[in-house]
Write a structure and sequence with these properties.
mainly beta; Immunoglobulin-like; Transpep_catalytic_dom; 9-stranded mixed sheet; L,D-transpeptidase catalytic domain-like; single chain; 5-stranded antiparallel sheet
Length: 392
Amino acid sequence: MPIAGLAVVMAAALSACSGGSGPSGTTGNGGAGEGKPATPAPVIKISPAKDSAKVRPDKTVVVTAAGGSLSQVTVEADGEQLEGEFNSEHTKWTSKNPLKPSSKYTVSAEASGPGGPATVSSAFSTLTPKIPLKVADVTPGVKGETVGVGMPIMVTFNQPVSDKAAVEQALEIKAEKPVSGAWRWINDKLVIYRTSKYWPAHQKVQFLAHLEGVHGGRDMYGTEDHSTTINVGAAWLSTVNTKTHMMVVKRDGKTVQTMRISAGMATTREYTTTTGIHLTMERGNPVTMISPGKKEGDPGYYKEIVNHAVRISNSGEYVHSAPWSVGSQGRANVSHGCVNARPDQAKWFYDHFHRGDVVKIVGTTRILEWNNGWGFWQLPFKQWKKGSALES
């Protein structure tokens, strides 16, 4: 709730001198003509008012000067100054960033004018949020991890956000090799950043959440900032052709592995490998794979333990070792939907994978959904941007 400003007038001391030829009892004013009133010092107003308590962190601090111009404004809490800017006439100063919650601010301002200088000081306190907003998780966020050029940045908050525009405005991406990108809200707690094209390889990317004081919803304000540094490695791009039964792996544009594979047998939709741009998500050795939606004894039920498995979707697709289908690899599609490979080559892929590496699959009639695993590249960037709270 806005709080009225406090006007503080610093009266300039007046010194009288003999009027010389003026009428008896008149005084001069710094050279002013006889009988003219003294020029007052500038009037400085500060909002929030002095000694205000429980000020909202999204409140803007405003300092104005009438009858002169502001020469200096300092607003600080805990030794940290609040950024702000003057208007062109230097008669108004406005803060640029949210205030720190649960903090005491001091304000000092100086102005000068025809009537002399003026100085004023004030103080106010910000409220403690009933609902604190923080970053709960950032993926990728493992210290020392190197990720692929397709890697999105997935940010989870500890509270459901209703003022998504304000929160999104507080999120920043800094890259050594910048490329355009956009945020997309998946739900009230999860927002994902995806670039318009793959990250340029071999660089550091920094994610910053300037959340402190940001309004996230009713009675909800950010209570701390967050920073995560992400290492983007080489451009690992794998192409799987289900019709030729081959997988070609390139690193920074150079072919480093050619693999005979077997994809989904496609007798049902469930057993059809999805066509589209996949990202490697996680790995396991071994991984137990059980037919989805079936129990033991049902037709089509299976339970297989596979080695060197790299997940590429949430619908059960992996690139993994399959010694039982070596005879079909390079010749026929016989799997339940996974990309089967020779044990030594599957291990090689497993050993070299990073989360966010690109696996492009072509040749089937089943299209990967954009929200199946990390299939975010399935959405054209123009459509992806529509999920931003800042897009009109």
